[in-house]
Amino acid sequence: MDTNALPDMNMNAPETACCPKFDPKGWDGRHLSFHGQPIVRATTRSLVHDPINMGQVFTRVQGHIEDAGAQDPDDIFVLSRDQSATEGEHFFRVIGDVPGEDVIRLSGDFITRVFEGSNRQANNRVHEMETAAEEKQPCRLICLNWFGGARSRN
To answer: What letter would DSSP give residue 65?
Structure first.
């Protein structure tokens, strides 16, 4: 497994209007390292960790990214995490500035983990990741659940 290399995704096998079907193969234990990576940061509202306006926010952000020519078609991904039961935070990888959006610079080392199961198991998964992060300092973990969403825990 190459550090910073993302597994291949079949973009011709959409599960939704925007995203390919998630194949967990190659994601568990993946090491990612970012050093000043430009990222569009966006937030969504949630009700008990279930996103309410994710479609609207993702459509807006994706439109702005495309309009700015800031998307690398060979390297697309979004990291997501729950800030609280009422707010989610999403990080869209870009290759340049995106007018109208909050562009930040992401630096750090991450290890991905893939879990399969219902959202009811999320608290257990978070605990597993926090324990693993303590053992693997200074890395942070990104949890990818069975449908391909992601959560980053510091």
So the answer is: H
